[in-house]
Specification:
The complex is a heterodimer of chains A (429) and B (274). Chain A has 429 residues and is an alpha/beta fold. Chain A folds into three domains: 153 residues, Beta Polymerase, domain 2; 129 residues, Rossmann fold (3-Layer(aba) Sandwich); 79 residues, no CATH class. Helix content of chain A is 56%, strand content 13%. With 274 residues, chain B is mainly α. Chain B has two domains: 111 residues; 150 residues, no CATH class. Chain B has ten helices and no strands. Classes of the chains: A alpha/beta (429), B mainly alpha (274). At the A-B interface, helix 8 and helix 13 of A face helix 5, helix 7 and helix 9 of B. Chain B: This is Heme exporter protein C. Chain B: One of its GO terms (molecular function) is heme binding. Chain B: Keywords: Cytochrome c-type biogenesis, Membrane, Thylakoid, Transmembrane, Transmembrane helix. Chain B: One of its GO terms (biological process) is cytochrome complex assembly.
Amino acid sequence: MSQGFKQQTILLIGVNHKTAPVEVREPLALKGAEEEPVKLFAQIPPVDEVLFLSTCNRVEVLFTSTDPKRALIELKELWAQKSGLPVPTIDEHVYEYRNEDAIRHIFMVASSLDSMVVGEPQILGQLKDAYRHASDFKTTGMVLNRLLHKAFSVAKKVRTETKIGSQAVSISYAAVELARKIFGELSDKVAMLIGAGEMAELAAQHLISNGVKGLIVANRTLERAVELSTQLGGDAIGLDEIEDALVKADIVISSTGAPGLVLTKDQVKRAMRPRRHRLLFLIDIAVPRDIDPAINDIENVYLYDIDDLKGVVEENKQERAKEAKKAERMVEEELLKFLSWMKTLDVLPVIQGIQEKAEAIRRRELERSKKYLGNLSDDQLEAIERLTNSIVQKILHDPIVCLRKNASNEECVKALLDTTSILFNLDSN
Amino acid sequence: MDRFFFVLAFLVYGVSFGGFFVHMITLKKPVKRAALWVLFCGFILHGLSIGARWYESGHPPVVNFHETLSFVAFFMTGLYLALEQKYRLKTIGTFVTPIILLIMAAAAVQPQRVVPLPPALQSIWLPIHATICLISYAVFALSFCISVMFLIQERQIKKKHLGGLFKRLPSLDALDVMNERCLKVGFPLLTIGIVTGSIWAEEAWGRYWGWDPKETWSLITWLWYAAILHQRLTVGWRGRRAAIMTIIGFLTLIFTFIGVNFLLSGEHSYVSRF
């Protein structure tokens, strides 16, 4: 087949908490990049449609291309260049999925079957945000639009038809579990949130429902801190007041979007004496990290980052495994449906080719005949347009229907496409 | 008769330990309840053994190693049962009962014959001094168990290796609070024990303090526990450091209690001679 009729391949390349440590995921998230990552990747010539998903546990690029080999190479090179990681490092940690596997993967991700905490609800929202973002930059097209909408509906179906999300599980849930192992009762404890984003809010709600006594919200913009603290019932402070607040707080959850450290070892060390060495539990759910990892070395201070929380959620895995099996079956069903739609996609370029060729012939012949037809009124011209158009459409109707009908029939579709290309001499165009 | 009850109590404690162990693995509440009841039965039998011995000898059975060790184990069991009644901390039993069994085993291998009380010990201060000291030892033995649990749990959380024990051990805060309470109870008892001993020494030998090895080591132990309590109350020391200090304190205590009598000679060496 010619260049123009090459099939679209759906590809997914990325890293998650299982394949790459947070040190690798951090730069790949391209948080500090001047240009929007999705826009950046869309500029790669062999990449047609693209979506960039970055959450605390995963960074993934979903894209389509008619030249997947080249697209992958160029994408990796660009990613390496912008993240500052060498290509071999990226190669070492990424997973690459193609077509069926890529679709399955994105369905699994959307349904939270691939998450660290299986069944956690956030990921769907994050995927929706990533999709909205890509749509804003117009980097998605027919294939990804359809794929993402399907992924959302699969996720919804999984959520409503299985018990996978019946327990409140998420990173914040895992954090609360751990807090209980450190403090026992949380009713006399004070929690501090650093960063007033969605993640922080979720964690705060979880802590409040588990009965913490007080809440302090620290944020770069005091306005947002006040807003959240009023909503949840707590005190608002600025980022520069964190050190003083550390004396009061027992649980600190940090999830700012700041590129650098928000809390240093010295700050925590200084706070320990006035706190009378009371146990301090810090949870860093930000990527890149907000809290200096060395803080964990301080006595009576326990610091957990996203990767560390893995251990806590491990326990829930078995319970969920059964429901997850059911959910996976649902994903497989939806995958088959999507694949059959994808196959109809293969015949589209050929159909388009025939239509374009026929239209070109019609126009050319019409132009040629016009000089013999003399002066025609607009009505007459329009009638001729309609006539020729209808002749072309009627002639093409049966071959197009035949192509569409057999699109999902793997065995004959390739032969049919080749034959059609030869019959209509599409290659020469 | 006392030996019969002692052996029976020992065996019942063993069964109770088995119960606590099974509970730690399965986390089934009825198993723990059963283990606690068995332990309580053991405690009663143990009490009968001590009572029988007291009746037989005509003086409080706190004179030789068999008796004192048995007494510490008895009080430790009682304290643990009371603690459990009040705080219901899971799996402490699995850590406390082996220590009780160990002390019981140590008591069992000691000579057990009942001997008449030598004149030097015939005093009202004997039951007062010895009982108070032994109760404080029992409290410190309990705080030792709690400190060991704390260190295990702390290490798991710090190193982020949240194994099977993680789920089964109480929270760090609860263990630390319990440890501090033990210290607050045990330290005054130890102090009173030393003071009463001193008064008794004045009565028996005409001097309050004689730098006898036992007395010296008691002072060292006392100073050590005083230091922990001081640091806890003034600076706010807690957690790992406090737990390690408690463990060292208990080892010093064991030396004061047992080691001194075997390794160094002094006024208290009568204990090992019976």
